[in-house]
Amino acid sequence: MFKVTHWVVITRSHLFADLLNTRWPQEFLVKLHRVAPEHFNSELLETRITIILIDLATVDVQTAYQIQKRIDKASNVTRVVFIHFPKQIDAKFLVNASVTAGVFYSDASLESIGEGMTEILKGKVVIPQSFIESSASKDPVSDNVETLTIREREVLQVLRSGSTNIDIANRLFVSESTIKTHLYRAFRKIGVSSRGQAIAWAQTNLHEVTQ
User: What is the rounded distance in angstroms from the CA atom of residue 5 to the CA atom of residue 43?
Assistant: First the structure.
């Protein structure tokens, strides 16, 4: 008798979850559970979930980053697969070698995703060659960090923990308006447009150059 495994699909789209449920339970002998991103909690990992699929069409990249970070800390058996991975924004920081098992772009067909999942179940990591080449051609740490001033690095370092502007100002003994100026300039240099993206970038990159 075959053992049915359990996967979680983190998405806000009932339609997408239903679409996967029409094929994958029979194809992979798996039970799919849809979870909205705001309802994800680490207790799910205690049920021996083996794969968590994150639908980046309905889950913002910062939320996805935080979810994967929690998975990485809480489980050594659960792997993450990103579906509808965006090509138009730089979300390479999401890929974590210790937990990410697959990346499928937004234009990937359900058939190609299914073929990729078959390889992932064999223990392989499925990431598009174009993603690997673009990651290799540009080193975000060396390209972006080198353009930051010492003060901007310090501000981003404190920002990593989710500190407010006032917290950062108090920590660095400067005014809040000065912190806003540093953040504005740093955001432009590292190519992010939101505080959440900056936190994720700093958590991924800054520790590599400041330790």
Answer: 17
Condensed to tens digits (0 to 9), the pLDDT of residues 98-110 reads 899 999 999 999 9
Provide the percentage of residues in the chain whose pLDDT is more than 70: 90
Q: What distance, in Å, lies between the first and last C-alpha atoms of the chain?
A: 52
Report whether 176 contacts 169 (CB < 8 A).
Answer: yes
Is residue 190 a contact partner of residue 198, using CB atoms and an 8 Å limit? yes
Task: Reduce the secondary structure of the chain to three states and give it as a string.
Answer: CCCCEEEEEECCCHHHHHHHHCCHHHHHCEEEEEECHHHCCHHHHHHCCCEEEEECCCCCHHHHHHHHHHHHHHCCCCEEEEEEECCCCCCHHHCCCCCEEEEEECCCCHHHHHHHHHHHHCCCCECCHHHHHHHHHCCHHHHHHCCCCHHHHHHHHHHCCCCCHHHHHHHHCCCHHHHHHHHHHHHHHHCCCCHHHHHHHHHHHCHHHHC
Give the pair of three-digit tokens for residue 130: 């174009």
- Locus of tokens 């010492």: 150
Structure tokens at 124: 């392989």
Place of tokens 């339970």: 25
Task: Quick: pLDDT tens for 19-33.
Answer: 999 999 999 999 999
